[in-house]
Amino acid sequence: MKRFYLFLSSLILLSLSCQTLVSGSEEPQMPTLIPAVTEPYASEIDMTAKLAELGGAPCDGQPDLTCVKIAVPLNHFDSANPETLGVYFGVAPATGERYGMYVQAYPGGPGGEGISSAYLDYLDESILEHYDIVYYDQRGIGLSNPLACPIAYAEDFKDFLTRFDEAGVEGLDTPAEQEEAVERARQYIEDCVAEIGIDPAKLAFFGTDQVAEDIDVFREMIGDEKIWIYGVSYGTAVAQTYAAAHPDRVAGLILDGAINMTLTGEQSALAQEKAFDKTLVAVLNACSADEFCRADMGGRDALAVYDELAARLSKDPLAYDFPLPGGKTVKGLFTFNAFEYTTAYQMYSLRGRMLFLRALADANRGDFVPMLRLMYDNATIDPATFEYLGDPTFSDTMFLSVLCTDDSYFSGAPEERIAQTIEAGQASNGTAPRLDGSVYTGLSCAFWPGSPSEVVTREPLKLEGVPVLVLNATLDPATPFEEGKFVAESFAEGYHIYVEGGVHSIYGYGYSCPDQYVTDLLVSGELPAEREVVCTDWGDAIYGFYVPILPQTVSDFSDPLEMMIAIDNNFFYLPEVYYNDWVQEKSIGCNFGGTYTFAPSAEGEKHMYDQCAVMRNLVVSGDGMFDYATGIFTMNVEISGEKSGRLTYSYNFNDGSASVTGEFDGEPVDLSQ
Fold first, then answer.
1. Same domain (yes/no): 497, 566
2. Positions of the chain with pLDDT under 70
3. Are residues 530 and 558 in the same domain?
4. Which parts of 438-550 fold into alpha helices (H)?
5. What H or E segment, with its residue span, contains residue 187?
């Protein structure tokens, strides 16, 4: 089973926030003033007092939020059922004149925890001034009656990563493979449900329709007539479901990475496959047009490099030795499944795409360690033990549960749905399209308790008189651009704001488009002058800029400064470093031997290099420090291998200047730029 996630993990989100912002040559269209839509609906409400009445207390790990637990019906649609469960909401009250609640259907998934992942920095100060910012952990997730089967999931996921096709072409093309896949899906669901440990019939009450009603219970308890909702990725399904059920209680919607709710489960999965493939092809073609990226591919077409590697792995997995700290290595098999999973995960962000291209370039010349680093990091697998670590803010269990509860993936008895799923999977299977298999989720859904047996149909939302901003990107791999466009055009007051290129969700990265449009609507009641707005301030929004990989010999560097800048970049863009949360010390094995250790400190970030062979003929020993106060990164290292020396390197993040002093290859060094 292949699972392509509709969420932005905290690590990916962090990497996106670190991107260099590039201004375009054109200015975005300016909005025009319309009658205010942000009249204070309940300005007399004192949110702080309301939260106190509800027993609010500071949220653990989120000092800006006050958490409250409310009791909601297990099944909102059966008044005869008295059973309830607790759902948590976290609120940051408005700092000034209150306009109402702005509910964050965030961070996506399904499966993402809202409260532990909450942050306020991406919101304009004027929004924080006038709105209570509301996060929540939806039922079954985080603080809200969590349901989980971590043991069953870990085994199933690791089996997926290591399994490879030994018969026919890639995919479930033989009866034996199909029977085995069906049995694996059945066994996984059976084990998962048993591990969850509740009456399986109750799992039907953890879908999006119930989540929408939980939000409305909270709205009613606070006393607001209407609420604003921001939904990202799966959160757009929550927002649209709420709006469909309670159109008179919606002040406005911001849908970022919009899901087309009129599609069936299998239609959505197949559309997503095409979007991932479209994004990958665009990234590879952009590499081929990039002087530095193409050079790193050996002057070859990047698409051909990718297809060649995919074809190789689809025939036989790659046996590898992965470096561990202290000079140790661990053996493993890199399968076609693991390669596709890694590729898909890296398509979510601009920097992620660039890191993937660098890893592909290294693999093209025989060094698979960078690609394996991405695989281990994306899959949250411990390289030393192959233990599945998971993301503590994301529920793998509820990801599948909500998908299978909301949609049927075909119709009929389980065996009929299974047959249709396999047929659809085979029709889309193979390395072209290059990223496929999402529709095989239907195998698991055929066995999931509470999964509807008939196709779920939904009409397009119109929401007369309700302003809706639909934000997306032409290279959104997870929620396809075409679906967002359909959603925007369906609303009576829908406005489509998008980026040419771009990523999965486009709000909150510091670009005036779309951020200013959101602020203007919420705070001033202003809407765009046109129903369709193309953001022009994102620059090259395919992978941003390319950072070349290290050359194969030290002699390829023109001077020691160029060498040290390249080494600095190499360490910076290691996945373990780039996606690091900097809460504890961590050591990793260097590509060709030795150990690299990095850790937080009172002053910033400290780095230690112990015989770290970053190239086959270049070994680095010493230490480094990034000083938060000055914004300067310094390395004091000894170089050995093909050439030797002692160097002090400095890079200033404030102005981009760099320098190196010391001795190298028997000559004094004093260079700067």
1. no
2. 1-43, 168-169, 430-432
3. no
4. 441-445, 481-490, 512-519
5. helix 175-196
Helix (H, G, I), strand (E, B) or coil at 493: coil
- Pair (642, 523) in one structural domain: no
* One domain for residues 469 and 605: no
Q: How far apart are CA 595 and CA 382, in angstroms?
A: 16
Query: pLDDT tens across 223-259, in order?
Result: 999 999 999 999 999 999 999 999 999 999 999 999 9
Structural domain that includes position 613: 554-672
Extract the tokens encoding 392: 């503590």
pLDDT single digits (tens) 602-637: 999 999 999 999 999 999 999 999 999 999 999 999
Which of 414, 444, 418, 416 is CA-nearest to residue 179?
A: 418
**pLDDT of the residue at 170:** 75
Global confidence as pTM: 0.92
- The residue out of 508, 535, 562 marking a domain boundary is 535
Give the list of residues 6+ apart from residue 419 with CB closer than 8 angstroms, or none.
Answer: none
C-alpha torsion sign, points 37, 42, 45, 50:
negative
Q: Where are the alpha helices (DSSP H) in 347-412?
A: 350-364, 369-379, 396-406
3-state secondary structure 243-303: HHHCHHHEEEEEEECCCCCCCCHHHHHHHHHHHHHHHHHHHHHHHHCCHHHHHHCCCCCHH
State how far the alpha carbon of 615 is from the alpha carbons of 127, 264, 640, in Å: 49, 50, 11
Same domain? 479 vs 518 = yes
Q: What is the CATH number of the domain that holds 86?
A: 3.40.50.1820
